[in-house]
Amino acid sequence: GEIGLSGPGSSQRAFGINSILYQRGIYPPETFTRVTHYDLSLLLTTDPKLKSYLTNVVSQLKEWLFECTVQKLVLVITCLETNEVLERWQFDIECDKSAKESSAPREKSIKTIQHEIRSVIRQITATVTFLPLLETPCAFDLLVYTDKDLVVPDKWEESGPQTIDQPEEVRLHSFTTSIHKVNSMVAYKKTESA
Amino acid sequence: MDLEDDTTILTTLKSFNSFISRPEHPQRLSEHSAGSGILQSQYKRSMELLEAAERVHSKNRYLQLDQEKKQMELSHKRARFELERAASDSARDLEHEVDRNQELLGQIKKLEERAEEVNKKLTEQKEANDALQKNLEGLNKTLEERDDKLGTANQTIRSLKDEIRELRQKIQNQDSKMSAQTLENQELQEKIDLQQRKYQEVSQLCQSLQAAQSSCSDHIIKIKELERRLVFQEQDFAIVKTVKSEVARVPDLEKELKRLRDDNAYLRLNTFLKENCSLLKEEVEGLRKKLERMEKTKEELINMELEKELHAWENLGQSTGLNIRKPEDLSREVIQIQQREIALKEQNYTLNSRVRSVERSQSELRAELTQQHSKTLEEQKKREAQDALVRRLQKRVLLLTKERDGMRAILESYDSELAPTEYSPQLSKRLREAEDILLKTQSHNAEMEAQLTKAQEETGTLKLQLQTVSEPALLNSVCACIFFLRQKIEDLERERQRLEEQNNILEMRLERHNLQGDYDPVKTRVLHLKMNPTAIAKQERQQEVEALRQEVTRLRDLVRSLQSGGAVGHSQDDTHNPSFSLSLAPSKEVLDLRKQMESSELRNQRLKEVFQRKIQEFRTVCYVLTGYQIDITTENQYRLTSVYAEHMDDSLLFKKGSNGSMQLMETEFSKTLGEMVALHLHHQKSIPAFLSAVTLDLFSRQTTV
């Protein structure tokens, strides 16, 4: 359902990820289509591999968000030629555990959801204006910071934090869902002209 | 008319037939008896009948023909009429057709003219088309060339970029290597210093050793000298003794001398001893020599005695204070003096070596001093540079903190725009925490105040006690306690402030690290999908790169083979690159042509060989049969050498003239054949005869000789 415990959070994030991929040109713009959700026209990718990857990640993420074991979600953009991390979109998730324990789900109106999604996408679009151009072919990766005692599922593996060397950091607007508060920020590698 | 004719014909025919049949009956009845006369009449009758029949027939026929003729004429007329009608019609038609023909001809002419015009236009258009196509082709070629240039430029740019990256990496590697090597260098230098110090110590020891060794050797030498002198002195003493003994013998010798002189004189006086004069003379000479020697020894002895006496006197004179009585004392004194000398020399040497070592150490110390000065200067400079860096960094930190504060203010202002209800849980939590802290601090404060009041009461009581007791010592102690406690409080407050600052700094750092993505490995774990787009993209990229590399190597091989194939031109090209048919299509023709060429060349060669062989055979056969070896020396000159030639150089030269006739040239050999030349060539004008004559002549000469 659209209004649920963790549904809005993950789908918001899915839209956010899609818009980041579109704005940063990781995938060509013609592979994205407009889709209507929550009475908003949003961009989603049509690339089947990318779609399956995103659904895998988002489904797993939903589970973990429900269990409140996720601490951060990071989208890392790597340059293919030099294997350097160029950008890092980090979403810190503060889970309100008391809400999970309570039985009555907190409802959110569509308007607030819309407002939040719009603000997220607006933020992303605004930040893209001052981010340096990605001139070389790039690929992205999604990292999830979880609690240590979590059981690692089949298709997942441990990886490094993939931080940027001497980054510039910009904090973005934070938004909340029914049980989480998400602080977002973007770190990017300084261009040499600085 | 016809019918009448017919009936007449028919009636005549009937009559005829009846006539014929009548005579036949009688003929049959009287066949055997009539004989030949009846037969003849019958025959004549029959003949007449036949002729009449024939006449009738011909009349019939004539009539028939007349009828037919009339019919034909009628039909002819009709036909002519119709024909004339038809002719008129056809004439009309012809006229129509002629008119139409003329019209059509006119149209045809017009159409032909138009066609010609159209053809001309067509040709013009074709020419224009060809020109345009040529232009197009030229433009396409230029375009392609430009594209190729662009492609090559892009490739060079890419290669240059790759080179630049590689160079940068190399530079980084080399920088790291350099730093590692400088570190090693420093270590090695320290080691070298240690070694140098050790070496100096060792050299000093060596020098001391050497000095000791030299002193030892000097001592040894001196000892040897003294021993030698001792030996000499002993020898001298022995000599002195012998000399003394000899000196003791001197008066005896003098007496003998006198006697010998007397004998000599006596002998000289005696004349009959002249025979022994020589002997005596020799004796005399011998004695004289002995005398001389004795005199010398005597002189020496005297000298020595004098010297000794002098020495003794001198020594005695010198060493009156030394108790010298014998030469042993002398020697002892001498030894002592020499020992003293040795000791002094030793001291001298040691002092010299010490002085030298001290000088050396001084110079080294001076060098070290200068080094240390330079090092201190360098370090001062480094420190100054680092101080400047520190100042700059501090300024930067200040700016950054100001920025951060500004950003925080902005973000806080942004945050404050949102409805406060969304933050209520977090805010309330923070509020609660702050309240807790406040409560704690308040309680702490209250405790401290309570303690303070307690302390104050205690001091008050103490003061009262003091007032009652008035012991200055207690007051002092209490004051000291109070003072001590106040100091403690101040210290604790300072520490608290310091710890607070540290706490703030650490929290800032933690936040910073969290921002950057750092995590506590004890509590968190970073996960990602194995088949993530980055990994997939990297794999694809690697595959692309490998595929490109393979293609590059393949293309390089192709280029090399093409280049080599262009130079050599054999069928190897096909075996190497069967897939590139387009590029080799022209070269296939070339290869075919080359093959043809090769085959033709082979054929030529074989033909040449065959010709050569045949020519060789022919020549040998000619030689064998005619007896002449014919060589072509130059153009149109033939040299003939006979089998039976007496010398190798004997040959006849023939020249082919412009008119084709052969002429004999003058040679050594031909001069000898003048007769035959005259006979066969001039008289008989036959070269074969001449040649055969020559052969026969030579053969005859050979066999006879």
TrEMBL record, chain A:
Residues 3-186 form the HORMA domain. It is found in: Nucleus. GO terms for cellular component: kinetochore; mitotic spindle assembly checkpoint MAD1-MAD2 complex; nucleoplasm. Pfam families: HORMA (PF02301). The keyword Cell division applies. GO terms for biological process: cell division; mitotic spindle assembly checkpoint signaling. Belongs to the MAD2 family. This is Mitotic spindle assembly checkpoint protein MAD2A. It comes from Astatotilapia calliptera.
UniProtKB/TrEMBL annotation, chain B:
GO terms for biological process: attachment of mitotic spindle microtubules to kinetochore; cell division; mitotic spindle assembly checkpoint signaling. Gene3D superfamilies: 1.20.5.170, 3.30.457.60, 6.10.250.90. It comes from the Eukaryota. Pfam families: MAD. One of its GO terms (cellular component) is centrosome. The keyword Coiled coil applies. Residues 94-307, 431-565 form a coiled coil. The keyword Chaperone does not apply. Keywords: Acetylation, Cell cycle, Cell division, Centromere, Chromosome, Coiled coil, Cytoplasm, Cytoskeleton, Isopeptide bond, Kinetochore, Mitosis, Nucleus, Phosphoprotein, Ubl conjugation. Component of the spindle-assembly checkpoint that prevents the onset of anaphase until all chromosomes are properly aligned at the metaphase plate. Forms a heterotetrameric complex with the closed conformation form of MAD2L1 (C-MAD2) at unattached kinetochores during prometaphase, recruits an open conformation of MAD2L1 (O-MAD2) and promotes the conversion of O-MAD2 to C-MAD2, which ensures mitotic checkpoint signaling. Belongs to the MAD1 family. This is Mitotic spindle assembly checkpoint protein MAD1. It comes from Astatotilapia calliptera.
